[in-house]
Design a protein that fits this description.
- With 675 residues, the protein is of the alpha/beta class.
- The chain is 39% helix and 19% strand.
- Helix 17 (535-549) links the parallel strand 21 and strand 22.
Length: 675
């Protein structure tokens, strides 16, 4: 028995031993394999970040380091611009070109494209200077492209800018509450961070004469720069070209821009998101006249945004990209004796510049003058100065140079002959037969045609797939007997729903606004908007009506509207009266300014209802909204509120002014105004 057992068990032990050793081998191989795999997989990603590290610095340095770019190109002056409508950018370009006349080299720069944290490194460049041309937008806000720079200035408390030489020219409008707020802030903040101001802050007022303010400041600024750096002007007053012309004789027409703002063919193949560089082509679905009579044309347009993924809120702005009147463009071509359909490129002579062309190229002169260049505004003095060389009559040359100077006589001549007479470039060429500049230089000098902003006259709660515009068509006779027409409003007027069987479209995008209804619908609102200033309030009323339909409690909604005559330009009368009947608008006050001997305006109605107004503001936490003309109406309305606070709040004028200012700070007094 034992023997049997012994005999039977021995082979089992052998088998077991064999099994364990192969298992050991298997486990060892498995562990070794896992270790190798882990080691390899751990090591594997390393080349990728390493590769990225090697690959990206060059473009990053080239794209965001203005210091490296300045060193590479031998520049010592950089002009940053905060620009919404293109004027600050234009001034920056002029200052960067000026530098050459003083033996220096300048570059204009968009702060959005560069790392502004590098400003402390500017001392690495000999005789370096940063100039800031900063426009103020809306209620004292930075322009879109300067928002990040503004945030950087606010957030970086410990930044040391002691090696930075700087100066600031601010662009603003005195009719606005926060006149030149952005320029003043940049000037003050840079000094706080240790930078050295080498010339006084310049203040440009667009309500008066922005060009004159800039020219006067610039004339004093450059001698101060020369004195600071110990340099002498070169005395070279000749024209300096920034771009060179290239005519294309053999070009694929699919590669030619035909009016697109950014990407080539972006109007044929539309891709969201839509913004200032990629507008959406919105079909016009309604275009009707609003007023019943009178010699003006007030219009209501509806743009279809179905499928665009564009979202908007009541109070936002819609930006549209207009085109110039084709008759004006054709006349310009005729007077200069050129074929407007030649395909051209204007290429920057500075190959390192971020701005390769003044407008999308290649394109035709016709497209440039129709879509990209502003040919209807009176040209600025620098344009006259540069064009003067092409006048064959010495008297014309002298007058053009005089108008571009800062002499009192020159300023007066520019004011009367150009500004007061509303002469655009075509009128100047017509009235100065000896002036016949080459068209490519003219195209280089003319400013870019800008988008126009309109307060949206609808609520996305009621109209999620359309955006409504309310505007008055601009048309007037100048002192020279010419009829001048507003570019955008006349272009919009002619945007018929169907044009020769095709849908009319408008390139557009939405710009967000701070002009917002209160967060709590129970808060009362007081809306003051004469004329087309009613636009955002149509959206507000629609939204309050929608909230009521949802069963929400809605506070008092008081509307003050003004127009000239009840039977002529009482726009949106049906909508307002229907909102009144439904209790959406709880009180409606209309000022018909010219239906009686004494003119009556919205501010008069405010004072007439002062007890109600004061109770709403002081007791019921009402929000005040003012939309329309900044120069007169908005000021008069504010004065009316000061007087109500004085009279019914028992305040002095100073206290009343502070009281209204506090409402503004708290976001309870909002303005959407223009001049």
């Amino acid at each position: 028995m034992d023997t049997e057992t012994t005999t039977d068990t021995e082979p089992m032990v052998d088998a077991e031993e064999a099994l364990f050793s192969s298992l050991d081998l298997f486990l060892f191989s498995l562990i070794a394999g896992l270790v190798i795999y882990w080691f390899m997989s751990r090591k594997k990603p390393e080349p990728i970040p390493e590769f990225k590290k090697l690959d990206t610095p060059a473009p990053t340095t080239r794209e965001t380091s203005f210091i490296e770019k300045m060193k590479k190109t031998g520049k010592n002056i950089i002009v940053f611009y905060g620009s919404q409508t293109g004027t600050a950018e234009e001034f920056a370009n002029r200052l960067s070109k000026d530098a050459q006349r003083y033996g220096m080299k300048g570059m204009a720069a968009d702060p959005e494209e560069y790392d502004m944290g590098e400003m402390s490194r500017l001392s690495e460049i000999k005789n370096s200077l940063a100039i800031f041309c900063m426009a103020t937008y809306g209620e004292g806000d930075p322009t879109d492209n300067a928002q990040d720079f503004y945030d950087w200035l606010q957030e970086n408390e410990d930044e040391d800018l002691s090696g930075l030489n700087y100066t600031v020219f601010a662009l603003g409008n005195k009719t606005y509450e926060h006149y030149n707020a952005m320029g003043k802030y940049v000037d003050k903040r840079l000094e706080e961070l240790g930078a050295k101001r080498i010339f006084d802050l310049g203040l440009g007022d667009d309500d008066s004469n922005l060009e004159e303010d800039f020219v006067s400041w610039r004339e004093q600024f450059w001698p101060a720069v020369c004195e600071h750096f110990g340099v002498e002007p070169l005395g070279d007053e000749s024209s300096i070209r920034q771009y060179e012309l290239k005519e294309h004789t053999d070009v694929n027409m699919n590669k030619v821009y035909t009016g697109e703002i950014g990407r080539l063919k972006s109007f044929e193949v539309q891709k969201p998101p839509f913004d200032s560089k990629n507008p959406f082509l919105a079909p016009v679905i309604v275009n009707r006249r609003l007023n019943k009579g009178g010699d003006r044309h007030l219009m209501h347009l509806e743009l279809d945004i179905t499928g665009s993924k564009i979202r908007y809120e009541s109070g936002d702005h819609v930006a549209v990209f207009p085109t110039n009147d084709s008759a004006l463009v054709t006349k310009l071509g005729q007077i200069l004796g050129v074929d407007l359909d030649v395909v051209i490129s204007l290429n920057n002579l500075d190959e390192e510049s971020n701005k390769k062309h003044p407008f999308p190229c290649p394109t035709t002169y016709r497209t440039a003058l129709t879509h990209y260049l502003d040919i209807t505004h009176p040209p600025r003095t620098n344009v006259l100065y540069e064009l003067a060389q092409y006048a064959s009559d010495p008297k014309d040359q002298e007058n053009m140079r005089k108008m571009a100077s800062s002499s009192p006589e020159g300023k007066a001549l520019y004011q009367s002959w150009v500004l007061d007479s509303c002469r655009n470039i075509l009128a100047i060429l017509e009235d100065m037969p000896s002036l016949r500049p080459p068209i490519d230089h003219l195209c280089e000098l003319l400013p870019r045609l800008q988008a126009r902003y309109y307060s949206i006259a609808s609520s996305s709660k009621v109209h999620p797939n359309s955006i409504h515009i309310c505007a008055v068509v601009v048309e007037y006779e100048t002192k020279t007997g010419r009829i001048n027409k507003g570019v955008a409003t006349n272009w919009l007027k002619n945007k018929l729903v169907t044009d020769n069987g095709h849908k009319s479209t408008v390139p557009m995008y939405v710009r967000k606004s701070q002009f917002r209804l209160p967060f709590k619908p129970t808060n009362p609102v007081i809306m003051i908007g004469p004329g087309t200033g009613i636009a955002p309030f149509i959206g507000f009323i629609q939204e309050r009506g929608w909230l009521k339909q949802q069963g929400k409690e809605v506070g008092e909604t008081v509307m003050y509207f003004g127009c000239r005559h009840k039977n002529e330009d009482y726009i949106y009368q049906e909508e307002l009266e229907e909102a009144g009947e439904k209790g959406v608008v709880t009180k409606l006050h209309i000022a018909f300014s010219r239906d009686q001997e004494q003119k009556v305006y919205v501010q008069h109605h405010l004072k007439k209802t002062k007890e109600d107004v004061w109770k709403l503001i002081h007791t019921d936490n009402a929000h005040i909204y003012v939309c329309g003309d900044a120069r007169n109406m908005a000021k008069d309305v504010q004065t009316a509120f000061h007087e109500i606070a004085e009279e019914l709040g028992g305040m002095t004028r100073t206290q009343a002014t502070d009281y209204i200012k506090k409402l503004m700070t708290k976001g309870r007094y909002s303005q959407d105004v223009w001049s």
